[in-house]
Amino acid sequence: MSKTDADKRLARLVRSCVCPTEDASKYAKELRDLANRMASKESAKKQSRFFKALADENRVRILRLLMLREMCVCEIMVALNLTQPTASHHLGILEKEGIIKRRKEGKWVFYAIANLEIIEGIGKLGLLK
């Protein structure tokens, strides 16, 4: 829908007295300001990447394991029957979004939840069962 179509629709809404304003153009500016303040493109993009990182069953299973304890890549591979490249791919996505963190000990790499409070909050919603 083009901007003019949206503006026309908003003007019709205002004329119908359903809107809490009398000036459609002023109201349109208020709506755009509200969207920028409460739902900026930058924050929405960041949040979208976070939820996309959780939108894979293997990554959710990895998180469930890491909620129990820190694990080495080889433990995750065995537990979930994943190849090393597949496990590393999923771990990389979760790490890139700051959901998990890694710790190197010699040649071993261990992963843990970066912010347990966030993951527990998501779990309380029933999304990590």
What does this structure look like?
The mean pLDDT is 85. The chain is 64% helix and 11% strand. It folds into two domains: 3-39, no CATH class; 47-124, Winged helix-like DNA-binding domain superfamily/Winged helix DNA-binding domain (Arc Repressor Mutant, subunit A), CATH 1.10.10. It has a three-stranded antiparallel sheet with strand order 1-3-2. It has seven helices and three strands. The protein is mostly helical and 129 residues long. The chain has helices spanning 3-15, 24-38, 41-53, 57-68, 73-80, 84-96, 116-124; strands at residues 71-72, 100-105, 108-113. 11% of the residues are buried. The two termini are 40 Å apart. Strand 2 (100-105) and strand 3 form a beta hairpin.
Keywords:
129 residues, mainly alpha, Arc Repressor Mutant, subunit A, 7 helices
Global morphology: elongated
Write down the Rg: 22 Å
Alpha-carbon distance between the termini? Answer: 40 Å
Q: Note the run of SSEs as H and E.
A: HHHHEHHEEH
List how many beta strands DSSP finds.
3
The CATH fourth-level homologous superfamily of the largest domain: Winged helix-like DNA-binding domain superfamily/Winged helix DNA-binding domain
**What does the average pLDDT come to?**
85
CATH architectural arrangement of the largest domain: Orthogonal Bundle
Mind describing the biggest β-sheet?
3 strands, antiparallel
Spatial ordering of strands, largest sheet: 1-3-2
CATH topology of the largest domain: Arc Repressor Mutant, subunit A
Q: Into which percentage range does the β-strand content fall? A: 5-15%
| Level-1 CATH class name of the largest domain | Mainly Alpha
Structural class: mainly alpha
Number of helices: 7
How many domains, as an integer?
2
Assign a percent range to the helix content. 55-70%
List the uncertain runs: none
